[in-house]
Each structure stands twice: as C-alpha cells, then as structure tokens.
Design a protein that fits this description.
There is one protein chain. By secondary structure, the protein is α/β, with parallel strands linked by helices. It folds into two domains: 10-103 and 193-223, D-Maltodextrin-Binding Protein, domain 2; 104-192, 3-Layer(aba) Sandwich (D-Maltodextrin-Binding Protein, domain 2), CATH 3.40.190.10. The chain has helices at residues 3-7, 18-29, 63-68, 79-88, 116-121, 133-143, 176-180, 200-205, 207-222, and strands at 10-14, 45-47, 53-57, 74-78, 93-98, 104-111, 126-130, 147-151, 167-172, 183-192, 194-199. The strands form two sheets. It has a six-stranded mixed beta sheet. Helix 2 (18-29) crosses helix 9. It is elongated, with a radius of gyration of 20 Å. Bound molecules: phosphoribosyl ATP (PRT) and magnesium ion. Phosphoribosyl ATP is lined by residues 15, 17-19, 59-61, 78, 80-81, 102, 104, 154, 170-177, 192, 194. This is ATP phosphoribosyltransferase. Residues 59-217 form the ATP phosphoribosyltransferase catalytic domain. Heteromultimer composed of HisG and HisZ subunits.
C-alpha cells in the first residue's frame, strides 16, 4: 500500500436528516465532533475533529452502494434499505452492529374503511404500492396473498387515496403521516433500526483505525 493510501482518512457514509442527527451522539461517544451540518452546508464531504475520519453525505438508499464498492469504508443505513440492497447485490457488506437508531416499523396500511382482512381471506388480488418491493414481495408470499406490486419512490400514502393501490407497504414511526391521510395500519411486517455496515476490504486493511470507532459505537448503541 502506498504511504498516501495508508494515511488516507477513513470515510463514513451517512444520509442527512434523521440518520445524520442520530449518528452525531455516537460520534461524540467516540470523541469525534462534527462542526458542519449537511442541512446548512452544501458540502458533500464533511471534515470531523479527527483528521483520520471524514463524512460523506449521500442519499439513504445509496449508502450501501458507496460502502460495497469501497468509496466509503463504512456507513450507516436502515434495515429497510439494506434489505432492498441485498436483493440486488447479495453478499459484500459486513454488518457488525445494530445501532438502535432511526427506529420505525415496516407496515401494511390501507384507506380507512377498506376491509383488508376480508380481502385477504377472500383471496382477492391486492394492488400494493411501495418503495420496499423486496420486503413486500417476501411478506405477501409468506402469507400466501396474491399481490400486484407497484413500485413508487416516495409519497406512498397518496396511492390508496387516488385509486392507484389498495394498500401500501411503508415505514411508520409516530403514525402521524398515516393519520393525516386517513390511512390505518393493518399489519406490522418488521421492526426497523439502522446498522453499521463496513466494506469487507477496509475491515481487513484498515482494522486498526476502524476498531476503536466500532467499539465506541457498539458501547454507545448498547445503552439505547
Ligand atoms: O428521503 P429520501 O428519499 O432521501 O430517503 P429516505 O426516505 O430513505 O431517507 P430518510 O432520511 O427519510 O430515512 C432514512 C432512514 O430512516 C430510513 O431508511 C429508515 O430506516 C429510517 N426511518 C425511521 C424512517 C422513518 N423512521 C420514517 N418515519 N424513514 C422514513 N420515515 C417516513 C415514512 O416513510 C413515512 O413517510 O416518515 C413517514 C412516517 O412517519 P410518521 O412519524 O408520520 O409515522
Ligand atoms: Mg425520507
């Protein structure tokens, strides 16, 4: 390895918003301060108080891609994102720690008044809109329910209101968004939190630099 590569800072991939906010206390627990916020700064590469660690800010669903290809040594991503990513790119990511942050649940929801249980027990074919196609496909296959999956990239809550779908599969945390759109949760699929993911080559070549951070993250997330 060249001397430059040996001293290159470790790169942690994060998405802005809740994952960035909830990662800050974990970094603090490792003695790392982040002085710039991705909300106010337009920079996509953020320095930290540790010259050996920098952050890159990417879309939540792109975090596993940056880590898998080694453009980031490690990253933080929701299990929802990891599940969809794994279906396209099996293997390749080491997922050592459940950080217990950005918690929510993946659910099936329908318009108020739509009798989901009756539709399921009658064996009706359901139109389900979701961003989480893999997780939804597995869930309904396990239940033996026939579904037509409609892939959306956001605002799933709208689909049942305008007749695009009978049901949605989406993340819920407070339930406020469902309520505001006259939707009700009818089934929980799985609890979601975010995991630390590590590039497999970095795990070997950068172990001495990575390990203290992984240990600090593990201790801080165990307290949650
Ligand atoms: O927003 P963008 O399209 O860039 O990507 P993203 O939505 O994947 O990113 P972001 O930052 O919104 O979410 C990052 C991760 O946070 C997700 O991958 C989840 O693992 C986790 N997380 C935790 C959530 C929520 N809670 C959550 N409530 N992700 C999304 N939501 C959305 C949900 O989809 C719904 O629209 O919030 C709405 C429901 O919230 P409540 O509180 O009204 O129930
Ligand atoms: Mg979002």
């Amino acid at each position: 390895m060249s001397p430059a590569a040996a001293t290159a800072p470790l790169t942690l991939a994060l998405s802005k918003g809740r994952i960035f906010e909830e990662t800050l206390p974990l970094l603090e627990a490792a003695g790392v301060h982040v002085t710039e916020s991705p909300e106010s700064s337009r920079k996509l590469i953020l320095p930290t108080s540790d010259p050996g660690l920098r952050l890159i800010i990417v879309r939540a669903s792109d975090v596993p891609t940056y880590v898998q290809y080694g453009a980031a040594d490690f990253g933080i991503a929701g299990k929802d994102v990891l599940f969809e990513h794994a279906a396209q790119h099996p293997g390749g990511l080491y997922q050592p720690i459940d950080l217990n942050i950005a918690k929510c649940r993946l659910c099936v929801a329908v318009r108020q008044g739509f009798d989901y249980q009756a539709a399921v027990s009658q064996g009706s074919r359901l139109r389900v809109a979701t961003k989480y196609v893999q997780a939804a496909r597995e869930h309904f296959a396990r239940k033996g329910v026939y579904v037509d999956l409609i892939k959306l990239y956001g605002s799933m809550e709208l689909a049942p209101l305008v007749g695009l779908a009978d049901a949605i599969v989406d993340l819920v945390s407070t339930g406020g968004t469902l309520k505001a759109n006259n939707l009700v949760e009818v089934e929980e699929i799985v609890d979601i939190s975010s995991r630390l993911i590590v590039n497999q080559a970095s795990l070997k070549t950068r172990a001495a630099d990575l390990q203290p951070l992984l240990d600090a993250f593990e201790r801080a997330s165990a307290d949650k």
